[in-house]
Amino acid sequence: MAIIEARNLTYTYPYAESPAFKDVTLRIERGEFILLTGPSGCGKTTLCRCFNGLIPHFYGGKLEGEITVAGLRTIEHPIHEIAQHVGLVFQNPENQLFALTIEKDVAFGLENLGLPRDEMRRRVDWALKVTGIYDLKNRAPFEVFGGQQQRVAIASVLAMQPEVIVLDEPTSFLDPLSARNILGVINRLNKELGITIILVEHRLDLASRYANRVIVMNEGQIILDGEPRKVFLENEAALIGVGIPKVVRLYMLLKRAGLNIGRVPLSPEELSKSIMEALIFDRG
Amino acid sequence: MSMFDGLKFRNISSPIHRIDPRAKFIYVLTFFIIAVFFNQLIPLLILFFSQIPLIIIAKVKKEWLRLIKGSSFFATIIFIMNVISLYFYSGYSSLASIIEQASAMTVRFIVLVESFSIFFLTTSPDMLGLSLEQIGIPYEFCFAFTTAIRFVPILAEEAQTIIDAQRARGLELEGENFMKRIRNYVPILIPLIVNAIRRSLELAEAMESRAWGATEKRTTLYMLKMERRDYCLILISALMLVASLYAWLFIKIPTMTQILNIQG
Question: Which residues of chain A make contact with B199, given a CB cutoff of 8 A?
Fold first, then answer.
């Protein structure tokens, strides 16, 4: 059953001359891990804003076509209703945390929903444990590192127990190690809790191993959509400047040189395994 | 900035930090009222020194000293203004009594600053917001209040970045001409304001995404509850107020000059 379904969706920001994206048709199933990528300004962020109703309710502008999220038509339902189904994590952790303790920040959404205190306490502790920041709960969000701040942002969305979590370039303010750890946390949400993930990301080297579907956008349109192992091999992806993972590029170079190692690798581990196998096969 | 550092909250644990903000506020207010009652030097000095143990218990000595140092500039101005006005416009005869009266006014100012600094140094803005909420102020205002406090350090940092960037492009901020210096701050203020607006939009977006305004009956994770020690503090404040009212009405407080004269 589709959790997000968009048909012929076109959106124009107020006072903009041309639409941010045009005629987007998209169907996202429950439990998918989707990697959404494409050059800056291609409409990724705008699309994310449609998923939880920020467009059109917060931004105004002109939205044409149909979009339903968790069975709700976003045009007819207010943001706070959709927010209980779709959580949105933003790029800059600094601007999405409000409170002066981490624990209170995670509770912010639940307070807005008017949950009873014991239920709130239970969910906050759970979200803090899942994201691995339980020990920091009494610190101020701006006292901890960027990576931990982004965990707080994820925990605060997670506490609302949404079915979908949309993350808009959550690692762009982070160093490589923190980025890898955050992506690990996101992967656990998907694999262990079954939450549908839509991850907007440029660091494909780190992220593509977790995804089961890659969507590439360019100039307001979806140009590629499919399994990562297929999408990254397309010429078009490389041409518009998607950062094809290095392991895939090595795979292609090997193939061109005459060595076919079988499956397209998505991580260095997979690549080294395939190469070992191919070498043993060659000798044998 | 050093003066405002004396009002910045640092999250440490002490008996004073744990007191309910409402009780603490009543205590501070009482001090405020008493300080306004008296205009003699001796009771004001007593008020000043009686607060020092609290500061030591609350472990905020360093911040407090910085605040006193920061306020010394204003204290000096108050002292000088008082000396001048007392000399020209009042019937004080001797220089000693003029100086005593001026010092009393200065100490009063310091006592007021002192008691408010104890309050702000030991009360987390979150708790302050919560107590505002619990005395019935609409949540929107409380939220605006805590958010403003939370973003002060971030905006200060941003301002410094902009200053550095504009200086690197040759912007002159130190100069003799006052008007010109003011005008040179415009290239700093404009990016700062634009950034603040952009930031507030992002913040609003994040709030909307976390179900802001979903229900009229908002709940809170923390709940302030007045405990015995809080009632004790209110009681102490009330007693202090009564005692000082009594002293103000019925006890003739000697001035420092009188005491020194008797001894001399």
Answer: 95
B172 is written with which tokens? 């002159």
Structure tokens that stand for A103 in this block: 């624990």
pLDDT digits over B11-41, tens only? Answer: 778 888 888 999 999 999 999 999 988 888 8
* Residue pLDDT, tens place only, A177-219: 999 999 999 999 999 999 999 999 998 999 999 999 999 999 9
Q: Which residue from B11, B124, B202 is facing A95, i.e. has the nearest CB?
A: B202
Nearest-angstrom CA–CA distance, A52 and A48? 7
User: Which residues of B fall below an 8 Å CB-CB distance to A?
Assistant: 11, 124-126, 143, 146-147, 149-150, 153-154, 199, 202-215, 217-223
Please give the ipTM for the structure prediction: 0.87
pLDDT for residue B194 is more than 60 = yes
Structure tokens given for B219? 């709940």
**Identity of the residue in B154, B203, B221 whose CB atom sits nearest the CB atom of A111:** B221
Domain ranges, residue B108: 2-123+227-263
Which among A54, A120, A142 has CB closest to B209? A54
> What residue in B sits closest to A165 (Cα-Cα)?
B209
pLDDT computed for residue A239 by the predictor: 86
For B15, B167, B228, B239, B248, the CA distances from B235, given in Å and listed in that order, are 17, 56, 10, 6, 20
Domain A1-85+162-243 sits in which CATH superfamily?
P-loop containing nucleotide triphosphate hydrolases (3.40.50.300)
